[in-house]
Structure formats: C-alpha cells, structure tokens
Specification:
There is one protein chain. This protein is of the alpha/beta class. The chain contains 11 helices and 10 strands. A 6-stranded parallel beta sheet has the order 7-6-5-8-9-10, sandwiched between helices. The chain starts with a helix and ends in a 16-residue tail after the last helix. The C terminus is likely disordered. It folds into 2 domains: 155 residues, no CATH class; 140 residues, Rossmann fold, CATH 3.40.50. Helix 2 packs antiparallel against helix 6. Helix 8 links the parallel strand 5 and strand 6. Helices cover 43% and strands 10% of the residues.
Amino acid sequence: MSARDAARNLGAKVSRRLQSAHKPIVRLMRRYARAEEQRTFRREAYDVDREIARVASAGGPVIAGPWLAEVGYEVLYWIPFLRWFCDAHAVSRDRLIVVSRGGMEAAYSDIASRYVDLFDLITPDELATRNAERRADHEGGGQKQSRASTLDDELIAAACKRLGVANPAVCHPSLLFGLFRHVWHGNLPMDFFWRRARYALMPSSASEPIAGLPNDFIAVKFYNGPALSISDDTRESVRRLVAQASSIAPVVCLDTNFGIDEHRDFDLRGLPDVTSAGALMTARTNLGVQISIISQSRFFLGTCGGLAWLAPFLRVPTVAVYDNDRVLASHLLIARQASALVGAAEFSPLDLRALHRINAVNPARSSGLVSSS
C-alpha cells in the first residue's frame, strides 16, 4: 500500500470516527427532548386536575355539562369520569346537576339527583344548527368540546333558570377532553386514565316490556361513522348480518330520523322479521328509549361505538361491528378492560374485513351470513 493510500485510509477512518462521535450526544439530546415533552404533557394534565379540584371545592351545586359531543364518548368516558369526580372530591349526588340530551336521565341516576334535557331548553333543529356552528368555530368540525362556547354558556344559563339555581360551579366537558387527550394520543400512560375513571354496571330497572315489541328480540343499531363506512360492500354485509340475526330471534332496529348529528342509520328495510322502533321515539326521548330497548334485548348488534360501549354495562351481550379501527384502538382496549373490571356482559368486537377475507359475508352470495357449502 502506498503512502498516499495509507494516508487516504487513515483520513477516512478518522472521518468516520468523527461522524459517529456525535451520535451518543444526539441520542442524549433526543431522550432529553422526549422527557421534556412528557413533562409538558403531565403539567398540562395536572393543571386540569387542579381546575377539577377547584370546581368541586365550591361547595354548592355543580352543573355537569352541557354534553354536546358523541354519545359514545358520553357513555365510555364522561359518565365514568363524573363518577370519579364525585368519588375523588366528595361531591354528593344531591349537588350534581347533569345537562345532556335525548332522555339520558337513567344513565346518570346513580350520580346525579337532577337532570336537565337540552331538548327542554332548545329545539332539535336549533341545537343541530348551533352545535354545527360551534364545531366549525371551535373544534375544526369535530364533535369534541375542548372549550366552552357561547352555546354552552347559554344552555347552562337556561338550565339554571329552569331549576332556579344561581351561581353554580361548572364541570364542563372540556375538563374531560383536556385531561384525557394525551392518553388517547399515546402521550401519557393508560394508568393516568384508569386512576380518573370509575366504571359500574348501570342500575337495573324492572321496567315493563315496551308495548309493540316482541317479548324476545335482538336490538340492532347500525350507522355510518369513523368505525363503519357506507361503501356498498359494507352496507350489503351489514344487511346480511342482520338477516342472520333475525333467523335467531326477531330484530328491533333502533333507527331514528332526527338528523341531530352527522351519523345516518343504515337502511335495513325489507328484511324479514326486522321491525323499527323509530315510532316509539321523539328527539327528547330517543336515547332513553334506545337504552331501555337494549336493556330488554337478548343481545345488542350494531356499529362499534355509541351505545355499543354502554350495552355490556346494561348486562346485555354485545357484538360491535367495524370495518376501520384507525380511531378505535385505544377505545376498544378501554371498553374491553372496563367491561371485565366490573363484570359486565360479553363485549365482542367484529371486524368486517376479517369476514370479507374468508368470504363469510360476501356480497356476491345470496345465502346469508355463512355459506352452507
């Protein structure tokens, strides 16, 4: 090897050593940045914790709400959060006033002595319009409640007037979303969430069978959303699932036509032994009626999300269907663990993509759910 080649090789070796020398420093800097980011997330969450404690310490009535977001977040997160709020901060049932919509009184009966329904304060059409404006102005079109809006303030004032309550503390849903958003995004550990939620079976009610419904039936609710697309294949597959269910027992569909949010029920008309409960509902009562029907059913079959999160806590076995789990993963984990924690009924997620993969609900067939060949 010539002296020139030796010098070139030595220079290359020194260069490589110099280039690699900074890697431990870079790794250290990255670890420090991640740790600082984690500290920021925790500081933000603990700031919310302190605000929650301040609300509870006021001593008088506490308004919980108004709830304007999805019913799925309401039953899977908001109600368990309020149970924790009352438990951790010694807020008695007599102090808590819930403001929600659609006849949700029964879902809050174990934690709040008073309930105000939004549809006793505002018409469904007006709420839909005003809520859409709120979402566009404050939430980028999403349904979450990351801050109190003018609509929230007006509804709280109307609820207070209706009940004759002056100057209550307000436990606004923005506290929930501020507390848990970093958990949902994977920035804080799940343990942070579990320490701030209390799950429980819903109080059982010995209600009489609902007039006009079979004595034994399967409750069904399918609607489009992030978990379930409106593709032709999905809609046909859903019809085949419902048709198969109707061969086990009559099916009662919990479809509504109120247009309060962007979700739309699947069209299941024309299937044998399938009836609609829509005529039993008004906007003011629709969620309460659906909960009552689910609680009396043999099992619940529907879109993964919404009332499918609640059904197991009504002691009703649940099959929750989806074809896209991009936004479902953390919620599925929580739903299954929470159900197991309190001894709720069986919760069975069902991925349509798996059924398509094995041709179990092939739209090209006419044989129903599973081929007999």
